[in-house]
């Protein structure tokens, strides 16, 4: 397994963040992921990093913070935390995040505490979220199984950690028999071809329908761009923000979503699971919603700020994607979003519109951009999903049939 | 063992840092010490901490930093690191450090890199060292075995980690059969009585002699205070800076040390071991030195700054102290210094002179205070140590006989 883990670390550094000589590499990790973190640090130095700075956290300590701290102190964000993030935006940096956490780590915590703490942090470091969503630096997200996460995915299984690691590596195209770097270059080229097809159609709107209750129309902004797989930073470096990635995604027009969407996978938000939920939209805004589990968490998500009630991303993934075919429910958006069509509540990516990364926020907003301070993906794809596109001259084109891309 | 570890965590919080309601607790730890760290976090919240902030590091990542980074980049200290330390000095804080590192972690690293990096960091955060040495906040150091450290102490022993943990707990008076909090209160009272005896004699100088080559005279500053065990922060909170602690220590007069001292235990400095070394002093300054191992490291220590060639602390520990009697060589100063008389090269503690914590640095220096930016203890006690004190009216009093306190 350690040979595979080394390949995975190499993939994170070479394809994910695409670390350049003399860049400063920031790694967000938890103490549970020390083994993978150390491998990534080594590969980053081998790639010529000037320095590698690991920002460690620990889920148990994080949870105790929410348990024992008051609402008031959770809303205080020390300046040094802001300074650390500011430093990332000031130097020639790239950022590698390793996710590992339990999907429902914070289920016993007062949701109001989570909301207030998140809002306080967001108010202080929103400049960083904007910086990253504009691809000002290369960034990537990879994963490693914590014991808690593994037990959620493979309950009552003594080999749960081993199994989850295998599923992570498989989904990331890291195998004994292949060169993952080469496999990823080919995969990114295939996704780019897909994006080109969608861009050439220049759809005005998309209509989603399946037998699970979803009947949704999503208007797209004028000049929208389909992206996914590989991206380019403002400085011109290629990178792959998510490992794995299977999606083609673009920018919906903020006020042009209508109808109902029904989730098909649980969503882990703020360390809580939202299960079997639906949203109803009118002129872009969520006007009704429900959930079998985690209703309070869903409510907090929608009330995070004004833009959280609107979508900012629509993404198409075939139901026969490798991650979907693995039949593993990861309870983690990095994986589950690549097994299923999804939407994001909250902010849009400026790069999903022509010249977007060069536009001011006001210019973007005029185009239909969602300027929320949050961005949360949720999954609604299924084997029975049908998607129709409507072009600017009114032509209707079937994009998905029986859950799969057919263009 | 987990019950003992919980007692140890409680000791660190209640006696070590003596965490007060609404204080912010800072913990310096490494990923190897997650288990103890989590227990300390919990106990700190139980004691009423407003928040607990863990500053995690990892020895392997630290070592790679020294291996791969250039001398130049190692000398750059990002502002956010300084801001973090500044924050500690600005709020009502206390600091708990957990040591666990391999005593010779950095033995393959270019000593010049270690020296430059240390000097750069010291220049930026010297305000923090001064803050702590003045007891402006409560602080304490405890320990936990990393695999590497355990293998150094108990080589070729499959149970090395377990054995080292047991030695740490034994040395810290944490046992199945006792209440460590109560044991420590008694122990601190006994050390205070010892300090009072030494203070009442008000020695002008101490003469050390043993059959291993040590023949040293150490002049003490006028108005010196013997301390050790429990201390009081500027804000008036009792605390115990070291767990374990067995020492009585005071302030030597910077230019009044003469003769030769021969080490009796290895010293781990900058992740390197210095073994079987000696120092010769003239008018306080080291004028000659040698070492069987680690001569370059010793040289760097002495050249850290002007004050590093002078001592700043002299400490008396009976050879029959429990840690000494355990016959475990810890290769770690927190333990080894409590098994043996020791000196520190570098800065003195302002509290070791009457009203010292209220004096300016210039006032302190006039009294014979060493204002170095480093402070490194080394051990020279032995079973054959004899110590004579000379009072201000010339009376000679034997303080140690055959390695033990006899006053």
Overview of the molecule:
The structure is a homodimer of 407-residue chains. Chain A is an alpha+beta fold. Helix content of chain A is 35%, strand content 27%. The first copy, chain A, is built from 13 helices and 19 strands. Chain A has helices spanning 2-16, 34-46, 59-68, 71-74, 79-90, 111-133, 147-153, 160-171, 180-201, 295-302, 322-325, 333-336, 361-367, and strands at residues 24-30, 51-57, 93-99, 138-143, 203-209, 215-220, 231-232, 238-239, 248-250, 252-262, 267-269, 272-282, 285-293, 311-316, 342-346, 375-379, 386-391, 396-401, 404-405. In chain A, strands 5, 6, 10, 11, 12, 13, 17, 18 and 19 form a nine-stranded antiparallel sheet that branches. A four-stranded parallel sheet of chain A has the order 2-1-3-4, sandwiched between helices. Chain A has a four-stranded antiparallel sheet with strand order 9-14-15-16. In chain A, α1 (2-16) crosses α2 (34-46), α1 crosses α9 and α7 crosses α8. The longest helix of chain A has 23 residues, at 111-133. The model of chain A has no long low-confidence stretch (mean pLDDT 96). Chains A and B meet through α2, β2, α3 and α5 of A and α2, β2, α3 and α5 of B.
